[in-house]
Write a structure and sequence with these properties.
Layout (H helix, E strand, L loop, with lengths): L1 E3 L9 E3 L3 H16 L2 E5 L5 E5 L14 H4 L5 H18 L5 E5 L7 H15 L5 H34 L10 E4 L5 H11 L5 E5 L16 E4 L2 H10 L1 E6 L4 H15 L8 E5 L1 H7 L2 H7 L11 E3 L2 H16 L20
Parallel strand pairs: 5-6, 5-9, 6-7, 7-8, 9-10, 10-11
Antiparallel strand pairs: 1-2, 3-4
Helix pairs in contact: 4-5, 5-6, 5-11
Length: 344
């Protein structure tokens, strides 16, 4: 009695009876097929060549080393898991316990760079400027005005890092984290770098704007393919968010965290600092939401609007100390980074 199968996938699993001679013939045929397979090709001369395949069986690539598979739709789950597991292993190795995340526009320049840009455009435009040059000039003037936020983000990150690196702890606390690109992200990484602390950059591939800034700690420089995995890591270790003026991406991160806090999905307090009342009062009317009944008056307590680096730092220091600086003995035996846990 034997179980039959077909190399073409037909009649698989059908039970039948064969004689010993038939079994031997089948075995020899299968061996011949495996070891003596021939590939028929047509040469340029029109003659038929018969190339014998190497009879030695070559091992197939290991699944986790098979690049075509890993880059295929079927390998997507492994790519997603790797963007969770690989950053986690590095955070453990670098002893990162928690973070303070800075968000803001990637299009802001430092004051020095903004002034150089404006001077160059003014020189090129001259007296008879075209409509396009006038537009560039208008944008350059606005860029110089917004450059103050670059300098203030740099200052706030510096103050926060100077304080956090002096906290007596086994792991690094409240590490300045950004999206790793230019603008406000660069400013915050620069401020933390100047203060002598480690600083994290969570980069992502974009068609424009996004490029790694040079102030990120090399061992904490990450590159993501999936937006949702990058967003996960922004929130995973965060104990505070600092929101500088920005565009769609900045508002996306702001309202996502406010929604989690409003719906009480976060078991631990995440401080939210909105920086620059002049900009944000023009862009978002939170009081109008209260008046319309779309949010509660108490929801305005989920964030704090500040206008100076010193004001922002004092709020962060007070809140982080109150909610997150507990005695080390309470974390005895903890082996993984503390996370922004969610409620059941």
């Amino acid at each position: 009695m034997a179980w039959g199968y077909s190399i073409f996938g037909l009649d698989s699993g059908k039970q039948f009876t064969i004689t010993s001679n038939e079994a031997g013939a089948a075995s020899r045929a299968l061996k011949t097929l495996c070891l003596c397979q021939r590939q028929m090709t047509q040469s340029v001369t029109g003659k038929t060549n018969v190339n014998m395949v190497d009879p030695k069986c070559k091992p197939a690539p290991l699944a986790y080393q098979n690049e075509p598979f890993l880059n295929s739709p079927e390998g997507r789950i492994l790519r997603i898991l790797s963007e969770y597991s690989e950053p986690l292993s590095r955070f453990r190795r670098e002893q990162i316990q928690d973070t303070v995340v800075f968000f803001g526009s990637a299009r802001f320049y430092s004051k020095l760079d903004a002034q150089k840009r404006l001077t160059g455009i003014e020189a090129a435009a001259g007296e008879g400027a075209s409509a396009e040059q006038n537009l560039q000039l208008k944008q350059a003037v606005a860029s110089l005005d917004m450059a103050r936020y670059y300098e203030e983000a740099r200052r706030l990150a510096f103050l926060l890092t100077k304080w956090s690196i002096q906290i007596p702890a086994r792991r690094r606390r409240f590490v300045v984290t950004t999206g790793g690109g230019p603008g406000i992200m660069e400013a915050a990484n620069l401020g933390a770098y100047e203060a002598g602390g480690k600083t994290i950059g969570l980069n992502i591939n974009l068609p424009f704007e996004q490029m790694c800034n040079p102030y990120i700690t090399p061992s904490l420089n990450f590159e993501f393919h999936y937006f949702f995995m990058r967003k996960f890591w922004f929130a995973y270790l965060a104990k505070a968010l600092v929101i500088f003026p920005g565009g769609f991406g900045t508002m996306d991160e702001l309202f996502e965290i406010l929604t989690l806090a409003q719906t009480q999905k976060l078991a631990k307090k995440i401080l939210v600092v909105i920086y620059g009342s002049e900009y944000w009062h023009r862009v978002v009317n939170f009081q109008a939401m209260v008046d319309a009944g779309t949010i509660s008056a108490e929801d305005l307590d989920l964030f704090k609007i500040v206008d100076t680096p010193e004001e922002g730092f004092e709020y962060l220091r007070e809140g982080l100390t109150k909610y997150h600086l507990v005695p080390e003995s309470k974390r005895a035996g903890e082996r993984v980074p503390e996370i922004a846990k969610t409620n059941p």
